[in-house]
UniProtKB/TrEMBL annotation:
Coiled-coil segments: none
Lineage: Bacteria, Pseudomonadati, Pseudomonadota, Gammaproteobacteria, Oceanospirillales
Record CDD domains: PIN_YqxD-like (cd18720)
Taxonomic superkingdom: Bacteria
Spans traversing the lipid bilayer: none
Organism from which the protein derives: Halomonas litopenaei
Family to which the UniProt record says this protein belongs: Belongs to the UPF0178 family.
Matches recorded under Pfam families: DUF188
Name the record gives this protein: UPF0178 protein C6W88_03965
Length: 150
């Protein structure tokens, strides 16, 4: 059975709560990986993995453990690309599927925005996590779990 991996360093609490409930409901082994301790309920299906505080330590841990067919929840595009290279599926915490057809364009846009910011341009940050984002994510996660659960 595929496992669910969460890049927990930047995962909104509301998305984390959705993942925990879904993992329990579908008995899906789920790992929250971060460079700090993540508060999670006691569960047979949901585990936290705290890694060292080094640069990309959580990302490296996920990449070393993720397997083909697993799902990664992340907004980190380089991590998403590495997970796709290993045969995993990737979804953002807003329910968007990242795949070979759209990841390169997103990485290019991210790099372009970084260049703008480096030149002093104020580009703003990501938009807040809305009720619509919560619904989209919960629905996308439920669809994935329905297709891949036992």
């Amino acid at each position: 059975m595929p496992q669910l991996w969460v890049d927990a360093d930047a995962c909104p609490r509301v998305a984390r709560d959705i993942i925990v409930r879904a993992a329990e409901r579908t008995t899906t082994q789920t790992w929250f990986v971060a460079n700090h301790q993540i508060p999670l309920p006691s569960s047979k299906w949901v585990k936290a993995m705290a890694v060292s505080h080094g640069f990309d330590a959580a990302d490296n841990e996920i990449v070393s453990r993720i397997a083909p067919g697993d799902l990664l929840v992340t907004a980190d595009l380089p991590l998403a690309l590495e997970a796709l290279d290993k045969g995993a599926m990737v979804m953002t915490n807003r329910g968007e599927t990242l795949d070979r057809n759209n990841i390169k364009a997103r990485v290019q846009m991210r790099d372009f925005m970084e260049t703008l910011r480096a030149s002093g341009e104020h580009t703003g940050g990501p938009k807040g996590y809305s009720d619509s984002d919560r619904r989209e994510f919960a629905n996308a996660l439920d669809r994935w779990l329905a297709r891949h659960a036992r």
